[in-house]
Amino acid sequence: MNSPEVLIIGGGLAGLTAALDLANKGKEVLVIEKNLYPNHKVCGEYVSNEVLPYLEYLGIAFNDFQLPKIDTFQLSTQAGKLVQVNLPLGGFGISRYTLDNQLYILAKKRGVVFLFDTVTEVQYVQDNFSVMLSTKQKITCKVVLGAFGKRSNLDVKLKRNFIQQKSPWLGIKSHYENTGHPSNVVGLHNFPGGYGGLSKIEDGSINFCCLVRYDDFKTEGDIASFYKKIASQNPILKDFLSNAKSKFEKPLSIAQISFERKKAIENHVLMCGDTAGLIHPLCGNGMAMAIHSAKLAADQVVIFLEKANFTREDMEKEYQALWEKNFKNRLWMGRQLQTLMMHTNWFNFGMNTVANSKLMLRSLIRNTHGNPILS
Ligand SMILES: Cc1cc2nc3c(=O)[nH]c(=O)nc-3n(C[C@H](O)[C@H](O)[C@H](O)COP(=O)(O)OP(=O)(O)OC[C@H]3O[C@@H](n4cnc5c(N)ncnc54)[C@H](O)[C@@H]3O)c2cc1C
Fold first, then answer.
1. Does some domain include residue 279?
2. Which residues does the UniProt record annotate as the domain FAD-binding (predicted)?
């Protein structure tokens, strides 16, 4: 497919859901993804129910899996003081290995074409895009969606502001054999310089995923001693880590995770998911936002392709406005949390305060989550 109607750069959650939605509406879609499916990703793998009706509308058959239903949120301070609240909407646990692969299989069935390659450049000339791949192939098309995740070679190429700054955050994740962690609980447990999330996924394994400031991590230098000496300062994590058996040969990690402001449209490319902005994982909502933003973009693209009097400018304006309406405040909240986390004493104070007040914790959840999105 050398000139699809829509080309999507990146086949993670945002790219795959946008592709499926567009294909369901009869559009010709090409997804360019640099990695083969299935693959593991650094992610807490707790999905908010905000997106469940939409994913079902897209055609994902979750009944084929035994997904843990999560309705309870636990937060613990470094000293292990625990507070627990109900999650108003709740969510479910599923590995990215399975979720992305299911979306990929379904998208292929619905006619989406996949090319496994790296996009190296996107040019916008005379109301059309030229997209260059690492294999020197060049593809032209009318619409491009950017769904290339948190950090990509394309951010450098597009000279995006956030990529010029170093980010101090490191993410680490592994799956562990079932240790008896309750299926209905997602826990966030604080330790010096970060926190680790515990929740169950579809095969009964426990996902342990940490976000940590690089400066705190590097005092240990390797993941095993970071777990032992830093993460285990929280007694709940100490108990988990001393009994847990990893299913991965070694944990996955990603560095330079940026929560800085990004633009939702650059060079006429509509950005979706983390490419448009990543919310702090403490909010547990990045995947739902990625999927929701992909839906908003797909809706506008369909109108643009079908209505002669709806111009590119209209499409961009409308997407920008919808994006801000739905995500601006939540991302702002996430950035405040990040600022707090950069100051250990403030963060400990904040965690202790929240851990003493269910009311505050409920308010935090309310302010970082949205309402269910429908078709
Ligand atoms: C530590 C951590 C824990 C988290 N935990 C949770 C959680 O529990 N719940 C939750 O809802 N969210 C969580 N998130 C957030 C969530 O993981 C992201 O918001 C989500 O993955 C965004 O999906 P995406 O499609 O935007 O990006 P991705 O899933 O990263 O997809 C981007 C895709 O683009 C591809 N790509 C990149 N560049 C190119 C290129 N040039 N050419 C071709 N392909 C390219 C990549 O290979 C990748 O497949 C967490 C994030 C972190 C960092």
1. yes
2. 5-297
Element (DSSP H or E) covering residue 140: strand 138-141
Q: Identify the residue whose C-alpha is closest to ligand 1 atom 6.
A: 44
Distance, CA 106 to ligand 1 centroid (Å)?
A: 19
Quick check: 272 and 31 in contact, CB under 8 A? no
Give the distance (Å) from ligand 1 centre to CA of residue 126. Answer: 31
- The pLDDT value recorded for residue 341 is 66
In a domain, 252, yes or no: no
Whether residue 328 is contained in a domain is answered as yes
Q: What is the predicted pLDDT for the residue at 285?
A: 86
Structure confidence by residue, pLDDT tens digits, 144-167:
999 999 999 999 999 999 999 888
The predicted pLDDT at position 67 comes to 95
Burial class from Cβ neighbours inside 10 Å (0-12, 13-18, 19+) for residue 36 reads: exposed
pLDDT, tens digit (0-9, with 9 covering 90-100), for 187-226: 999 998 899 999 999 999 999 999 999 988 988 889 999 9
Where in the sequence is the domain holding 294, given as residue range(s)? 6-46+95-165+258-340
Nearest-CA residue for ligand 1 atom 48 is 12
CATH of the domain at 108: 3.50.50.60
Residue nearest to atom 45 of ligand 1 (CA): 10
Report CA(23)–ligand 1 centroid distance (Å).
Answer: 22
Report the C-alpha gap between 108 and 3 in whole angstroms.
18
Ligand 1 centroid distance, CA of 168 (Å): 18
Q: How many domains does the chain have?
A: 1
